[in-house]
Specification:
By secondary structure, the chain is mostly helical. The protein has 20 helices and two strands. Strand 1 and strand 2 form a beta hairpin. The termini are close together.
Length: 512
């Protein structure tokens, strides 16, 4: 079987006449710029990249923000077996009127999550290509980061359950800004790897005929994997320290003494994580080298280039077999994982009764195992020289176990993320066996995407990922409502989707 790195190089080489590559070669001399010494990746720049991820760890927009939103819904909701708003939520369920229907609060969270990802897809379609042109690359990350931090502090004004509708807005904005910042920060790592001193030296040896091209491509691939995995490991270590401080904040606010204190603690934790993010982001804002990108093609503007280049990127994917197949796989498996994690998170919040202390301790377990899992995966890959695709193929199997476990809970209360012990086990398992997906799936994008417009293809995959991410929650929300508020029923849909995505990955591995 052809090595995926060599195979990708052959495909890109055969596509030199295509519009996307032709445009980049005709309208830019960026490749010449990035070969100069001025744009060599320094140790300080690399560490600034790592430290940024310590701040952009998801605690505000992806963890505590959604938990606070669901907490407000629970406190504002009512028992569906009683007259509306006459009895608080309890063992009989919890519902609220939302978008024209009386819905279970878990269904509301999933539906709002889907709306958020739909908006992200539209935004990335418009601005996704901006990172490829001029010197906009750092600015996009900076803008998303500042907006995300502002949203984090805005949660301090939303602590009354009656303000849950404002929580909807902050929940959506928090996810959009977090994912936007994460997308364009992540897309910078292939350029960092390509401009490392040792990789630039290797490229010169290839030009001089002293080194084989396939050997050079493999070395660059390993550096991309190293940067991606090390960034996750460092983020995990930093996040553990942040969570340890949060435990102290929770104790100081006496969050366990009343629901009011607990709700206030949620907002304080979100704001605190936003402040930490800003501090961690400043070194990256200052030290990231503003490597020049492409020039805008004639007849285009920043308002239209995103849509036009996305069409070009899709057309290019159709010509590059591995890129196209991985795009389909990424769409399906991304939907499986994103929706699975969201569904489990809603179940987790209910099981631990929205306790800030419990959720923080669970996150500590998850982050410790995440750092351990990602780093062990990387050490194994480095030791045996395993390809990115092989590591990814091994990793996705463990996602299946989550869907099966949740599926068991459709007809029984003994299993299915319905007990505290299951939630603790899930956090450890998720960190060790599932979290490496986030590193390897991103690295794989860099290995199946044409080099001249790497940022565009990262944005394209993000659009595809966000499209799948809003389809899954919307379908899951509808499934919960149609099944009489059975919160585990979406796992049947997710199991079938995993089988489909695994088949596509297998077909990709057999691609001639």
């Amino acid at each position: 079987m052809t090595d995926p790195i060599t195979k990708h190089d052959e495909e890109v080489g055969s596509a030199k006449e295509t519009e996307i590559v032709h445009t980049s070669e005709a309208s830019s001399t960026s490749s010449n710029h990035t070969d100069t010494k001025d744009y060599t990746t320094t140790r300080k720049e690399l560490w600034a990249f790592y430290i940024y991820y310590v701040g952009n760890n998801g605690l505000s927009g992806f963890n505590f923000g959604p938990s606070q939103f669901q907490n407000l819904l629970f406190l504002a909701g009512y028992d569906p077996t009683q007259a509306p708003f006459t009895a608080p939520c309890g063992d009989n369920g919890c519902v609220l009127p939302y978008l024209g229907k009386i819905r279970d609060v878990n269904s509301i969270v999933l539906l709002t999550n889907g709306i958020s990802f739909a908006l992200q897809a539209v935004i990335l379609l418009m601005i996704g290509a901006w990172a490829d042109y001029g010197r906009w690359r750092p600015n996009i990350t900076i803008i998303f980061t500042i907006l995300a931090v502002a949203v984090s502090f805005a949660w301090l004004g939303v602590e009354d359950p009656q303000k849950w509708r404002a929580g909807v807005a902050l929940y959506i904005l928090g996810l959009i800004t977090y994912q936007g910042a994460l997308t364009f920060w992540t897309a910078a790592f292939p350029g960092l790897a390509r401009n490392l001193p040792e990789i630039k030296t290797s490229a010169e040896l290839v030009k001089e005929g002293q080194k084989d091209l396939a050997e050079h491509e493999h070395a660059e691939s390993m550096q991309r994997n190293r940067i991606s995995n090390v960034s996750f490991a460092i983020c995990s270590a930093g996040e553990i320290m942040i969570l340890a401080l949060m435990v102290g904040i929770i104790k100081g606010l006496k969050a366990d003494e009343s629901s009011e204190n607990n709700t206030h603690a949620f907002s304080v934790l979100i704001a605190f994580s936003g402040g930490v993010w800003l501090l961690c982001a400043i070194p990256w804002f200052v030290l990231e080298k503003r490597r020049p990108g492409l020039t805008l093609p004639p007849g285009t503007s920043l308002l239209t280039i995103g849509f036009k280049q996305t069409v070009v990127a899709f057309r290019e994917c159709m010509r590059l077999k591995q890129t196209f197949l991985y795009l389909i796989f990424y769409f399906l498996m991304g939907d499986v994982l994103n929706t699975t994690v969201t569904v489990i998170a809603t179940l987790q919040n209910s099981v631990v009764a929205y306790s800030t202390l419990q959720l923080t301790l669970l996150l500590i377990v998850g982050i410790v195992t995440q750092g351990l899992g990602i780093y062990v995966f990387w050490l194994v890959q480095k030791r045996f020289g395993i390809s990115t695709k092989a590591m990814l193929s091994f990793n996705v199997f463990w996602i299946l176990i989550l869907t099966i476990w949740g599926l068991i809970g459709v007809h029984t209360d003994k299993f299915g993320f319905k007990h505290v012990w299951e939630i603790w086990l899930y956090q450890a398992y998720y960190g060790l066996m599932v979290c490496p997906w986030y590193a390897y799936s991103q690295t794989m994008i860099s290995e199946v995407s044409p080099l001249p417009q790497m940022f565009l293809f990262f944005a394209l995959f993000s659009v595809v990922g966000k499209t799948s991410a809003f389809i899954g929650p919307l379908v899951s929300s509808a499934i919960i409502t149609a099944s009489g508020n059975n919160d585990n029923m979406p796992f049947a849909f997710l199991f079938g989707l995993w089988v489909s995505s695994a088949f596509v990955l297998y077909r990709n591995a057999q691609c001639p």
